[in-house]
TrEMBL record:
One Pfam family recorded for the sequence: DUF547
Location of region: Disordered: 1-25
Domain of life: Eukaryota
Compositionally biased tracts (Polar residues): 1-12
Protein name (database record): DUF547 domain-containing protein
InterPro entries, alphabetized: DUF547
Length: 282
């Protein structure tokens, strides 16, 4: 599999020194560079990326230099909060990097062959695809929704970097390149807990609708694909939602949950069009 990966931060020099760099300064440099990219080549709300301007910029070349340094990063020094923030940032940066390097730029990320399975970085001498980061590391080595086995086997050295448990809020921080994805933000280990709560609240306020009269709750497909991350039953998923909805919507959902009558849970269509705008084609 590794021979088929599209490793975007490989170079003749990367990883050759054998030295392992502490992750803290590199994580900070990654955050700063991502913030500069976001300020210049993304919409203010983080939902659109201007890929054409981005990939021809000097700032993007600077970012690629930072990405190459990931090869020498010592991941063993990261605690869980640092690891969570680090890998969320790396996932989003790798997504933007992979799409910016796509030529021609697709109308939808689905047009790119196995984009999430094959787009990868060398991090600390280990190869991580987008799928490896999401399902292996951030979801605590849980299977992809379309798979029955976890990404990292028992003898896979990358398994040591998996989070001990799955924090469902990460689904509202990871950006897959589609318009229905959450907004791109930049995270740090010091703000990761509050930032993930804010990201979940923002996403749920926009993507969850409660029709009390019809006893229907409509959500993003994310809640359908990853239902087990939010609870072991549909009711537990709805209870999880109550913690992140605006007050009025939460009250409506709580009244439905307090009733003995069934609730219909449905999902709206997912917009897979690329998270770019008209300026990206200039």
């Amino acid at each position: 599999m590794s021979s088929k990966l599209h490793v975007l931060n490989s170079s003749e020099e990367a990883g050759r020194s054998g030295a392992r760099r502490p992750p803290g300064p590199l994580a900070l440099e990654l955050q700063k560079t991502m913030l500069r990219l976001k300020g210049q080549y993304m919409s203010e709300d983080g939902r659109e990326v201007h890929y054409h301007q981005l990939r021809s910029s000097g700032l993007f070349q600077d970012y690629e230099g930072v990405a190459r340094q990931l090869c020498d990063c010592d991941l063993t020094e990261l605690d869980d909060n640092e690891k969570k923030a680090f890998f969320v940032n790396v996932y989003n940066a790798l997504t933007v990097h992979g799409l910016a390097r796509a030529d021609p730029l697709p109308a939808s990320v689905l047009e790119l062959d196995r984009f999430w399975a094959l787009t990868a970085y060398n991090i600390g001498g280990h190869l991580f695809s987008l799928d490896d980061i999401e399902h292996g590391v951030l979801r605590g080595n849980r299977p992809h929704p379309m798979a029955d086995k976890p990404p990292f086997s028992e003898d896979d050295p990358r398994r040591q970097f998996a989070l001990k448990s799955c924090d469902a809020r990460i689904h509202f921080a990871l950006v897959c390149g589609a318009k229905s994805c959450p907004a791109i933000q930049v995270y740090s280990s010091s703000n990761i807990e509050q930032a993930l709560t804010t990201a979940a609240e923002s996403f749920c306020s926009q993507e969850v609708a409660v029709d009390e009269g019809r006893r229907t709750v409509t959500t993003s497909k994310i809640f359908h694909w990853y239902a087990s991350d939010f609870g072991s039953s549909e009711r537990q998923l709805l209870q999880w939602l109550c913690g992140y909805l605006p007050e009025e919507t939460r009250s409506q959902l709580e009244r439905l949950l307090d009733s003995a009558h069934p609730i219909t849970l449905t999902s709206r269509d997912y917009n897979w069009q690329l998270n770019s705008d008209s300026r990206s084609a200039l």
